[in-house]
Predict the 3D structure of the following.
Amino acid sequence: MAKYKMAIIGYGGMGGWHHASVRDNVKSFEVVAAWDIREEARAKAIENGLHAYNSLEELLEDKEIDLVTIAVPNNFHKDLSIACLRSGKNVICEKPVTMNADELREIMQVQKETGKVFSIHQNRRWDRDYRCIRKIIEDGTIGKPYMLESRVQGSRRSMVGWRGHKVNGGGMVYDWGVHLIDQMLDLFDSPVTSISAHLFNIFSDGVDDNFKVLFRFENKVSALVEIDTNCFITQPRWHMSCTDGTAVIEDWDLNGKMVKLASDEQMTWDNDIVYTSAGPTRTMAPRPRETTEELALPEVNPQWSEYYENIAGVLDGTQELIVKPEQALRVMTVIDTIFESDRLGKPVECRI
């Protein structure tokens, strides 16, 4: 029997996903109710076996609810999170947690006052491709990273529903970017010192539908985060250059490989010019095959349900919160700086 009862605010695509995923994979929580301003969404919740509240006030007054997951457009996150915390509920909020860093600071102040648990559903920390990159870095398999490229690319040329509207916090920086930025900041325990952002409006009005952001960390690692919705020839999901080799992950199915130096010995290069289709070169002469070794990507098997089980562990007093508000504040501060860099048309020096 589940330890904790859970309600969902916003029973659309993500709200329904939370319901089904928790029901099928998480033992500690039982989803019992939902609230949505749309009548058809409330009817869907009832059809799926949930109690549908007729108002937000009814949910807030329900003392049986231990946890509320908020899955509504971004511009409603702050007020709903604060209302739930003040009513004595623990809260999980979909990402991006707020429209900017200042809004999150308001929530964090209320969380501190109430003592309730507040977390952000950064579920892509459990993606296999991300965990694979993290393991390569942690194991030092190909040395220390100095350049990391993270991309998600498609060619649909459209954004569904509220994601295309600025007032709702639409656009790709908020939608997909927040995931990739959170992953990048989780990889490197070092302040971001420079952000150079290029946002594009190729087919939409008012929000970014494509972007490229270059980060510089204090530890001298550079990182590129790129989201394309107008890309017809895609690049690898990850490309990482390290001191002793290179790693490529082509897609979410973990097609890819690592290539590393076969030994620590320094080979002696001939100074003869090599002639290629592009002309003569010495610097880009091909490396002899026997000096490198091709490796398979490491095996990883993360379970998304660990996120909710961690919340249960925090409520039990046996675990520390994995996705912390302070981490989300760093992400939102980076996002604020991305918009500032694009507005100014130049890199922004920072310490985040």
